[in-house]
Design a protein that fits this description.
Order of helices and strands: HHHH
CATH class: Mainly Alpha
CATH topology: Substrate Binding Domain Of Dnak, Chain:A, Domain 2
Number of domains: 1
CATH architecture: Up-down Bundle
Helix content: 55-70%
Oligomer: single chain
Length: 142
């Protein structure tokens, strides 16, 4: 069981990620608790919760713009809703239909969700944005 949990953890980048230099949000090191399945699951769940909260902060920051460099608040909402559907379908494609009763499946599925959320955070942070207020921003001319 321990070996399987380690393989799952390593497969999803908890052993070392491309974002190690600048973490997107505070993550727990699940390898430290690999000796206990319960603690390992709690660690994954906490990391998923942290990922979702970080994504929501970035998304709400973009949504709160007074002026949009490109697009609009409505467009951003539509894209984000479509992205959530994509994330769910991508992880289902990678791991099949969600099976909360299968411990190994749950770990793999949650690992996929965390990976997709991390990618989305990076993508949203890379978007041009206007902060409104006293800052100067020239929206994209279409």
């Amino acid at each position: 069981m321990k070996a399987l949990l380690f393989v799952v953890a390593a497969a999803f980048g908890f052993a070392g990620t491309a974002f190690a230099d600048a973490p997107l949000y505070p993550k727990q090191d699940c390898e430290k608790v690999i000796h206990s399945a319960t603690a390992f699951h709690k660690c994954y769940a906490a990391n998923l919760d942290a990922a979702n909260k970080a994504l929501n902060r970035v998304y709400k920051g973009l949504l709160a713009q007074k002026v949009f460099y490109v697009g609009s608040a409505e467009g951003l909402r539509d894209v984000e809703r479509a992205w959530v559907v994509y994330k769910d379908k991508e992880c289902a494609y990678e791991y099949g239909a969600f099976d909360s009763g299968n411990e190994d499946y749950w770990l793999a599925y949650v690992g996929c969700e965390i990976r997709k959320i991390d990618e989305r955070i990076v993508e949203l942070k890379g978007r041009p944005s206007c902060t409104g207020g006293n800052s100067v921003c020239t929206p994209h001319i279409r």
